[in-house]
Amino acid sequence: MAIKQTHGKLPLKQPKALAQDAKQFMSRLLFRPDTPLHMEDVAAAREYIHRYWAQLERFHPKDDESLLGLPKPYLVPSYSEHTGFDYNELYYWDSYFMVQGMLDSEHEELVTGILENLLALFARFKVVPNASRTYLTGRSQPPFLTTFIFDIYQEFDPGDEWLKLAMDIAKQEYAVVWNGQKKPNERLVHKGLSRYYDINYLHDLAEAESGWDMTPRFGRKALNYLPVDLNALLYKYETDFARYARIVGDKRDAAKWDDAAEQRKKTMKSLMWDRLRGMYFDYDYKRGKRSGVASLATFFPMWAGMVDKSEAEALVKALRRFENKGGLATTDSLPMGQYVMGAMPTQWAYPNGWAPLHYIVIKALERYGYHKDAKRIATKWLKTNLHWYNQHGVFLEKYNVVSPDKPPAKGVYPSQEGFGWTNGVFERLCQDYIDRPL
Known about the structure:
Elements: H1 15-30, H2 39-56, E1 57-58, E2 74-75, H3 92-98, H4 108-125, H5 145-156, H6 160-178, E3 188-190, E4 193-194, H7 203-209, E5 225-226, H8 228-247, H9 251-272, E6 273-274, E7 279-280, E8 283-284, E9 289-290, H10 300-304, H11 309-322, E10 323-324, E11 327-328, E12 352-354, H12 355-367, H13 371-392, E13 398-400, H14 420-435
Antiparallel strand pairs: 1-2, 3-4, 5-8, 6-7, 8-9, 10-11, 12-13
C-alpha cells in the first residue's frame, strides 16, 4: 500500500474528527475544577427540563387493572418511546426528589397534589407503597413523608389544619409500617431500629424497598441488616414530630419525640458508627457486626442533623473515599468482586452516581456549615449532567462519575433517560448555586 506523502505536514483531519476533538477539548475545559458554571451554560438544559415535565405528568383517578387510581395529577420517573420500559405509576421517593426543582408558585398545585396522592395511598392501603401498582403494595420505599410535608408547609403555607391532617398520616405510617413487628410490616427487629422489608419476606425484594436495587451494601441479605439511611430517616421523622408538636404548643408531646430521637441516635452510634474509619455502616443484626461496604448512606445521619461536630468533621474527611471527577460514587472504589455475591448487577455502587444521593450529601454539608465542600460537589454533579446533555441531548437516571464520558454501569433493568429525579435535582442545584449562589 502506498503511503500518502504529506511533505512534512500532518495529514488534514476530517470534519468528523475535528468535531470530536472539539468535544473532547470542551469536556476537559468543563471538568476543570476552577471552571465555574454560569446561567448561560445551563440555560438550554434547564429549558429541556422545563418542557420535559409535561411528558411525565399523569392523571388516573380510577383503578385501571394493576394501576391504582389517585385523586390528583402526578409525575412518573421517565418517558421514552424507544426503550420499551414504560412508567405510568407514581413512585414514593422518586416523587420527593422530582419536586425539589418545582417548589415555586407555578408548580404549587402539582407538587401539593403529589404529596396528597401519597397520603391517599396510605389512607387506602395502610402503607405508602413502592409505587401505585397493586403488585407493589407489599413494600414501601425510603420514607421522606415528613420532610415532604414540611417542604410544602414552608414553601406554600397551606395552613395548620392541612399540616395536622398530613402529620397525623405520617405518624400512622411511622407506627404501622416502619415500627411494625409482624406481617405485613415486620420491620422493627433489633434494639428499637428498623430494617427494609417486603411482605414476601425475600431479601432481594427487601433490597428493592431500600430504593438501592441492587447494591453491595447488604450482600444479597437485606432482611438481616439495619440500614443507616432508613434509621436516619426515621430519626428525621421523630424530630419532625417534635417540631410539629412545638408548632401546636404541645410541649409534652415534643419532649416525647425528642426522647425517641435521642434514643435512636444513641443506638445508631453504638451499632453503626466506626470511629476509626469515621463513617456509619449498615449493621448486620443477625451476625452482630457492621458491614464492610462504605456507601453514601453514611451521610444520611448528617443530613438528618443527628451527628455532632466531631462526627461531621470525620464524615467530611470521608468524602475523599467517594469523590471522583464527576461527583460522588455510590460506594467506595474497592473492587466489586470482593463483596458482591452472585451475578446480580449492582447499579447502586461504584462507579455510578445518583441524583438523590448527591442531594442528600450536599444538604448534609450545608446543614453543618461546609458550604465550600457542598458547592464543589454540586458543581461536579451539575457538570456531569450537563456534559451528557450537551453530548447526547438527554439526562440519565444515573451517571458514571469516575469516567463521565462513559455510560453508567448497568443494573437489573434497562438504563433510563429523562429523568425525573435527575432533572429535579439539577434544577434545584442550579437555583441554589447558580441563580442565588451560597
